[in-house]
Protein: Cytokinin riboside 5'-monophosphate phosphoribohydrolase
Amino acid sequence: MSDDDIRPDSSQADSASGVSHAPLGNTYHKGPVILRGQMIPSETTTGKLLASEESTDWLHMDPWRVMRIQAEFVDGFGALAELGPAVSVFGSARTPRTDPMYKAARQAGRLIAARDVAVITGGGPGIMEAANRGAAVAGGTSVGLGIELPHEQELNAWVNLGMTFRYFFVRKTMFVKYSSGAIVFPGGFGTLDELFELLTLVQTHKVKRVPVALVGTQYWQGLFDWITGTVLEEGNISQLDPSLMQITDDVEQAVDVAVSGIAR
Ligand SMILES: C/C(=C\CNc1ncnc2c1ncn2[C@@H]1O[C@H](COP(=O)(O)O)[C@@H](O)[C@H]1O)CO
Structure:
């Protein structure tokens, strides 16, 4: 029975005489609530649902946004729940295909896939494309978790399991939840955001330790020295924290580090 069904209240009817003793007339059932007489609404719930609306302001309000965020979590969890072991590869969206780091990220994707581990990237160009390419060509699972950006961008052509997110924080949850390790290639703010998100969650024990390999000693050493020097000396991190990441130029070693968190 639908929640807006109107039916006579048979408990009030005298079946012998056939005379209805429902002094207030029909009973309107709204879930567990009954309404009679003047309390019966002129519009039904279904009627309201199906009515066309003049204003679409609600589309841009927080309660509706919360529903969209929920939907994004549901779709993400649904798409990735059965992925199996995976490693995230982060790095610049701007790395040209001719750059040695593009080649290195491709190699990383291939080596990760060869270990039967899925590769997860942001699904964009540059390092992301290279890692997806290496994984897909090697016959592996090549995941792209894209982000809706003002200038429309497709997921790169080497993604074989992809989803595009509207919200950065939902997408970042997916990276953290579904990867057991990460390889970080040279990159800009996006890459640094992904690296520090991971390190912060590990440092604060929100997630268990995730091995992180940084590829490119020349690129990362300055940051690492500043962290282990100034940041540590000022007492803003603990002694342990710098060991959460390892820097290398050797892609095979980076893959070893990243997959070391996967129980076999
Ligand atoms: C800037 C350009 C394209 C952006 N396209 C992106 N698509 C998917 N994911 C992206 C994109 N840009 C950034 N990201 C995420 O951040 C990391 C790279 O950011 P960076 O600032 O380039 O370091 C990356 O790992 C993604 O997850 C024009 O080509």
Remarks:
- The radius of gyration is 28 Å.
- The pocket of LYK5OOP5 is lined by residues 90-94, 122-125, 128, 146-147, 149, 153, 187-191, 194 (CB under 6 Å).
- The first strand starts at residue 6 and ends at 7.
- The CA atoms of residues 147 and 165 lie 5 Å apart.
